[in-house]
Design goal:
This protein is of the alpha/beta class. It is built from 9 helices and 13 strands. The chain folds into 2 domains: about 220 residues, Rossmann fold; about 55 residues, Dna Ligase, domain 1. The protein has a 6-stranded mixed sheet with strand order 5-6-7-3-8-9, sandwiched between helices. It is globular and about 75 Å long.
Length: about 350
C-alpha cells in the first residue's frame, strides 16, 4: 500500500541556554503511515509527540533524518499542503469573528479558492450550521473545536493531522468527532493523530506507534499488538457440575456463566464441559487493552533507563537524555533553536 508519511532516522536536538541543558527530543524515529490508515502516535507527556508532529508538518527542521509527506519533503508554503490539514490541540481564533466569518477567513488562506458550498457542507457536517452567526467569544470549547474540525475539512484533505483533538471535550462531542473521522476515513482521508485518550485511540485507529523519551518503543497493527502477550480465553457457557479449577467464573446467572480460562487448558475444558452436559455459548481469545500495553511498555522503558543510569552508561553525555515539554510551540524553520556541530 502507498506510504503517505515516511519517517526515517528522525532526530531533533534543541540547544541549551544558561538555565537549561541541551535536549535531544527525538532520537532516530522510524515509522511509516500508509494511505487509508488511522494512525495513532502515543506517548506520555514529554515523549516527543508534538515535536514529531511539527517535523511532519515542516514547522521544525530535523537535526538529522528525513520526513516524506506524500513523497515530498514538507516545506512551509509548499503546494503539498493544499491537500493536507492540521488541527492543533488548542486552536486560537480571532474572537471578534462569527463562526461563519472565521471559516471564510481560513478558506481564504488557500491558493485554490474554496467554493461556498464546501464551507456550508463543512458546517453541516460538524453540526455548526445553526450557530454560523454566533461570535466566537460566546462559543464553548466544544463549539470552537468543531469549528477547527470544519476548517480542517474545507479543503477535502487527503491527510489530516490532529494534536490531542478530544482533550477537554464532553462525551457527546467526542462521539460526534469520532464519527466524523471514521466517515472521512471511509472516503479516503488518512488520519494521523496523537492523543492521551487511549480508549478513543483503540476504538478508531488501525495502527499505532508509542513514543517514549524520543524513541519508538512499539509500532504496528493495533489488532496484532493487543493479541501479543494475552494468555487466556473468555468463556460463556451454561452452568455445569464440578467445573475445573482452572476455570475462573466471574459472573453467574441461572442459565449462564461467564469466566476466564488459561489458553493451555481450552481443549480439556471443552471436553469436561460437554461430558458433564454443559453447552459452550462463546469462546474467544482475550485481547489486552491498549492501556495495558501502553503502561507495560512505558514502564519497561523507565526501568531500562534507571538500570542504565545505575551502570553509568549515560555519564558524560553531551546533552540531556530527555525531551522537551509537549506544549512547546515550534519555531518556524527551526534554525534558531537547533544545536549545530
Amino acid at each position: 500500500m502507498t506510504a503517505v508519511l515516511e519517517v526515517e532516522g528522525l532526530r531533533k536536538r534543541f540547544r541549551g541556554t544558561l538555565f537549561r541543558r541541551s535536549v535531544e527530543a527525538l532520537k532516530g524515529v522510524d515509522f511509516c503511515v500508509r494511505r487509508g490508515d488511522i494512525f495513532g502516535l502515543l506517548g506520555p507527556n514529554g515523549a516527543g509527540k508534538s515535536t514529531a508532529m511539527y517535523c511532519f508538518l515542516g514547522l521544525l527542521r530535523p537535526t538529522a533524518g528525513s520526513v516524506r509527506l506524500n513523497g515530498e519533503r514538507p516545506e512551509i508554503g509548499s503546494a503539498l499542503f493544499e491537500k493536507v490539514a492540521y488541527l492543533p490541540e488548542e486552536p486560537h481564533y480571532p474572537l471578534y469573528l462569527t463562526v461563519e466569518e472565521a471559516l471564510r477567513y481560513y478558506a481564504s488562506l488557500y491558493d485554490t479558492p474554496i467554493p461556498p458550498h464546501r464551507l456550508e457542507a463543512a458546517l453541516e457536517e460538524v453540526g455548526m450550521a445553526k450557530w454560523r452567526k454566533m461570535r466566537l467569544t460566546k462559543c464553548s470549547k466544544g463549539m470552537k473545536q468543531k469549528l477547527g474540525i470544519a476548517a480542517s475539512l474545507i479543503n477535502d484533505p487527503e491527510v489530516l493531522f490532529l494534536d490531542e483533538p478530544t482533550r477537554g471535550l464532553d462525551p457527546v462531542i467526542v462521539k460526534e468527532f469520532r464519527d466524523i473521522l471514521l466517515k472521512r476515513n471511509r472516503r479516503g482521508t488518512t488520519v494521523i493523530l496523537n492523543s492521551h485518550v487511549l480508549s478513543e485511540v483503540e476504538m478508531i485507529c488501525n495502527r499505532v506507534a508509542i513514543l517514549n523519551k524520543g524513541e519508538v518503543i512499539l509500532d504496528g497493527e493495533l489488532e496484532e499488538i493487543l493479541r501479543v502477550g494475552s494468555n487466556c480465553y473468555e468463556i460463556r457457557c451454561s452452568p455445569f457440575t464440578d467445573p475445573p479449577p482452572s476455570f475462573t467464573v466471574l459472573q453467574k446467572t441461572e442459565t449462564e456463566w461467564k469466566g476466564e480460562l488459561p489458553a493451555g487448558e481450552i481443549e480439556e475444558f471443552i471436553h469436561t464441559l460437554t461430558a458433564r452436559g454443559g453447552t459452550l455459548f462463546e469462546c474467544r481469545f482475550r485481547k489486552r487493552t491498549l492501556e495495558e500495553v501502553f503502561v507495560e511498555r512505558v514502564r519497561e522503558g523507565e526501568e531500562k533507563t534507571e538500570e542504565n543510569a545505575v551502570l553509568g552508561t549515560s555519564a558524560g553525555a553531551p546533552f540531556a537524555s530527555g525531551t522537551v515539554d509537549e506544549g512547546e510551540e515550534p519555531a518556524v524553520g527551526g534554525s534558531n533553536e537547533e544545536e549545530r556541530g
